[in-house]
Design brief:
The chain has 8 helices and 8 strands. The protein has about 210 residues and is α+β, with helices and mostly antiparallel strands. The strands form 2 sheets. It has a 4-stranded antiparallel β-sheet with strand order 1-8-3-6.
Length: about 210
């Protein structure tokens, strides 16, 4: 993964600290890599293959080699908030603003309005082809990587990953707006598919 990380212009010290702690996992087509509403405590880097990203089971985008997801574990809390504001300030909004605000904060691995204060995935990712993914858990990242960086290196990581997160969110928002089902009923669907909704359980059983 070293070459993929270098292409993102991440500090060399960060790459040297991160790579020894990355673990590799293989997925077959249709395997679930991460699941919407589940606790988000891993960061992922797609190394080989193609995966699809879904929000409320609507196909939103395709992920390819070199794509990060689970950005929030690589960011300080304050920078995650700044990244959210940058995405909003860039004018990428949907008409149902409140529905999108929740989706955006959760896609950061943020805390949902009805969550138990743990960061949760705001989307699902499934393998489309055979995939190889590097990943690291949040505890290992902060103990073995983040804590070894000096202030300047941390700021550089925050800036680069934060920019990537803004682009990632912006792409998801634009793709969501292009979905006919999202345009017609995004507010209604958003409430139906909340984690505490009984309809969500029935819907999963039926499908």
């Amino acid at each position: 993964p070293i070459n993929l990380l270098k292409k993102k212009n991440l500090p060399s010290a960060f790459i040297r600290a991160l790579v020894p702690h990355l673990q590799k996992r293989f997925y077959t087509p249709y395997d679930q890599i991460c699941t919407e509403d589940n606790v988000c405590d891993y960061g992922f880097l797609l190394h080989k293959g193609v995966a699809n990203l879904y929000i409320h089971d609507l196909p939103i985008r395709r992920l390819v080699k070199g794509d990060f997801f689970g950005h929030s574990i690589f960011l300080s809390d304050s920078h995650a908030s700044d990244a959210t504001r940058r995405a909003e300030d860039s004018g990428r909004e949907v008409e149902e603003g409140q529905a999108y605000e929740t989706m955006a904060s959760e896609s950061l691995g943020g805390k949902g309005a009805n969550s138990d204060e743990l960061p949760r995935w705001g989307y699902s990712v499934r393998a489309k082809t055979y995939c190889a993914v590097f990943y690291i858990d949040e505890h290992t990242y902060f103990e073995e990587v983040w804590n070894t960086l000096d202030t300047k290196e941390r700021e550089a990581v925050d800036k680069i990953v934060g920019q990537g997160l803004g682009e990632f969110q912006g792409h998801n928002i634009c793709a969501s707006k292009a979905q006919p089902a999202w345009k017609i009923g995004n507010k209604k669907e958003h409430s139906l598919f909340k984690p505490e909704s009984k309809f969500r359980d029935v819907w999963f059983l039926c499908t």
